[in-house]
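input
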Amino acid sequence: MGEMLRTDDLITLVVHNVDHALKLKEILEFHGIAVTLEDVDCEGLPLQVSPKKVRIPVSKLPLGLKILESGDNTTAPLALAKMTGMGNTLLIPVDFSHMSLAAVKLGFLLAEKFNVEPVVLHAFASPSYIGENSEELYNVDLSDQIVDESIQTDSLKRAASLELLKFKKIIVEEQEAGELPDVKFSTSLLEGIPEQVIQEYCKANNPVVVVMATRGIHKKGIDLIGSVTAEVIDACRVPIVTVPENFKPGGLMHSKRIVVFCTFTGYDSLVVRWLMRTFDYPSAEFYLVAAGDRPVLSPDRKLSELCDYFTKTYPTASFHADKQLNAGFDKRVSDLIENEKIDLMIVPNKKSSAISRFFKPTLAHKILFEKDIPLIVLPVQ
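output
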């Protein structure tokens, strides 16, 4: 039960219309502040549209003012789903491994938060592109099949469909056991090379996020050229969340120590605003690191200016500038992860060709293969 409040213990924080008052009440309560809403007597206005006093305990006034001053405080955490051009689905590509189930768990948590429908997608390759483990993956023997691509494709499709059905059953059982949010979801089985299928889905449907699993760092070397996740990151123009092996999906929702790679463009403000509005971190520590493609004049000054700006705009969080500007980039990132116990990295990503990525991997591509840490990869122009 919420704490009992006496009228003389309360102070009016702000007066809002009904919708804004309810949204602000949700956010204040998320921060542990008990809220009561009181009608403002406006002669001639129906009660249901009259303004509301948002009242909180006097002892919580300093925190309430900080939240109120943070800007866009009445925007609900569902802001991501409302971003221009985005649809109402969240995509989770799977290959039926235990890592896929971890991606499903995080995807369902995000889908519940964003109020969108998760789509569990599996892509199976035609015989022309069959990998060495395809028969093992689908538990199907094609050795006695007539050498006819259409017949083999039908066999693979039936086998993949059966595996997807089994995987769906596991998801439903996890929901019934309370291990997964009870959200409506759908499954999709498509033929083609996985990274291309995912790219085409994103072009057609604009999911709010793609959630993908990644291998542990000790296994990533064998996937260095052909990682599906890396290919999707570099080609898709939608936000992508990566789930490292053995990562606890719920942890992302409570991340408190976050690296944001800065480009010193309008992207930086958009990213931090996106994080604060969407994930609503009340007291997170943000570490700003320069990540431009070309040398930047006075990066230390620019980082300090960003810290000052974000501190004034979002006073409930703390912002720190990278101080190791003379050290190599890899060392700076590694030291930051280890010394500050970083649990999430926000990475900008520009679209690049396969040839360009081969000779000069993107920042997101590089971090994906070298660090076992969840990433939120956001496309930039």
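quick obs: The radius of gyration is 24 Å.
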